[in-house]
Amino acid sequence: MTDIEIPLQKDKTKAYRFFEMLPGLLSWSLLLLPFILSLVNATLAVVFILGYLLLWFVRSIGIDFRAFQGYRIMNLHKSLDWQSMLHELQVGYVKEGDSRPDWHDSNVNRLKEHPKANRPDDLYQVALVAVYNESKDVVEPTIKSILDSNYDPSKIILVIAYEERGGKRTEEVTKEIIAKYKNKFFHAMAVKHPSNIPNEIIGKGGNITYAARELEKFLELKKIDPLKVVVTTLDSDNRPDKNYFAALAYTYVACIDPLNISFQPIPMYTNNIWDVPAPMRVIATGNSFWNVVLSLRPHMLRNFSSHAQSMKSLIDTDYWSTRTIVEDGHQFWRTYFRYDGKHQVYPIYTPIYQDAVFSNTYVKTLKAQFIQLRRWTYGASDVAYFAQKGFLTENKIPKLDKIFKFLRLLEGHVTWAVAPILLAFSAFIPVLFNPQNYAANELPILVSRIQTVALAGIIATLFISFKTLPPKPAHYKAHRNIFMILQWVYLPVTTIVYSSLSAFYSQTRLIFGLYYDKFDVTDKAVMVKGKSGTKRTS
Q: Which H or E run contains 526?
């Protein structure tokens, strides 16, 4: 398939609009269903609600198990000697006596059978950093974290994609950083994304796409095969784990055919986790927890936030879409349809450390968190894109694969909106309309007991949250640790107010065709210690 772009508003058909509305229509219908069933038949309402809650109880057990398993694997991959393993992939044998994972031998042997496959020494990596108007205190640590990696920076190309809309200050900061660090990389370049390009949404997709096209010109000049280049997109606050680039190089080489693969590290929102308000800590930790779980569910894994892909596949897809504010997740579907379904995501079990939402006042921080989540939930717009490209456009993708992926995509967004509210309140609906019905009266008691048992699952979240915390900054006293525990009383509120309502907000906008026409940059800040004390900078 060659036409993989999102249609312009004027070109959207009635069918496309129906599928844009579908997630919201289903979410609102499912939310109202307990009320309708309670009016029609109380027992039927009780059976539906109890079944839904039991389904989630079973799912929560699986999620907790995956979380512990994912945490263990992530720690293993953070500690592996990737440099030695890359050398063994290069030379084609494993040094005797060295302790290696079982899968390493298989990878070395498989590469022997494919002499034309990429080798580690042939590979170049690109760190493509998107900047809007962030300060040097936010951007420079990201560049330093790339240089501090256990990977040769002379094999890394640094590209800082910055916005003309960011103003003179952003341009000065970007050029200053490039001048300071350019000699440490194979090549470093700053690319200014012009404002007001026709048919572009104001957002990250246009910025990194414009920069990637400049990168393509550089690779052509240097005669570097784009299939020997893997590009990682980073936000300005993203700090890769020291083993990320080595782990990515290893996985890229070992998968033999990287053209049809995207690579997804684990986003962890811990950079400023000690500084942000408690509700934001709960949300950030929950998001980190979920990303660990997703890393072990390849059928669910999609591009999100920082991700990597071969330069060749980026060229083939004409880079990222410039017509959506969710260019990361959309890139999976864009590549999926470009290669007629021959595309999947491989997990990279090393983290990319990111900032939690943090603005210059408490109220602004609360608002900024909602803005971030409503942007994420706007991924529901991909339902219509999938339906058009998958079912209404001729393609070679197997029907069952399309159907399962479509249903999984749709179910994920509906669940995002509905599940928190139903789990919290649905047990009280039948008795509200049927106060004399025995089953309706017993349901809240039964559900309360199920939820009490399910609360044990929060232990998994607490365990991972404490194990993944960075060291406590010196300006915080020991009692800050207590707040890190007490903060979890916010969990029901943050789940409903932020996760559920943001999803309903985005899906409802899609119902009425109220599209987002720009990428709302999330407020990020860090506490910086200077001569005059600790201050906040963004």
A: strand 526-530
Phi, psi of 309 (to 5 degrees): -160, 155
Quote the pLDDT of residue 455: 76
The set of residues, in sequence order, having a beta carbon less than 8 Å from that of 72 and lying 6+ positions away, is: none
User: Whats the size of the chain, residue-wise?
Assistant: 538
Beta bridge partner(s), residue 536: 527
* Mean of pLDDT values over 48-75: 92
The answer to whether the CB of 369 falls within 8 A of the CB of 280 is yes
DSSP 8-state class, residue 518: B
Query: Residues 79, 355: contact at Cβ < 8 Å?
Result: no
Domain 1-79+117-538 class in CATH: alpha beta
Over its C-alpha atoms, the chain yields an Rg (Å, rounded) of 24
Is residue 339 classed as helix, strand or coil in its secondary structure? coil
Among residues 424, 350, 9, 315, the alpha carbon closest in space to that of 149 is found at 350
Q: Can you tell me the distance from the alpha carbon of 531 to that of 399, in angstroms, rounded to the nearest whole number? A: 63
For the chain, give the mean pLDDT: 93
Looking at residue 232, its pLDDT comes to: 98
Task: Give me the residue spans of the domains in the chain.
Answer: 1-79+117-538
pTM score > 0.70 for this model? Answer: yes
526, 138 contact by CB (below 8 A): yes
Parallel, antiparallel, or unpaired: how do β-strands 239-240 and 124-131 relate? unpaired
Angle at 63 between CA 61 and CA 65, to 5 degrees: 70
DSSP 324: -
Nearest CA among 234, 159, 164 for reference residue 193: 164
Alpha-carbon distance 384 to 15, whole Å?
8
* Cα separation, 90 vs 478, whole angstroms: 48
Q: How many CB atoms lie within 10 A of CB 451?
A: 15
DSSP labels, 222-279 = HT--GGGEEEEEEETT-EE-TTHHHHHHHHHHHTS-GGGEEEEEEEE--TTTTTS-HH
The two three-digit tokens of residue 186, written as one number: 């194979």
| Residue 337 to residue 1: CA distance in whole angstroms | 6
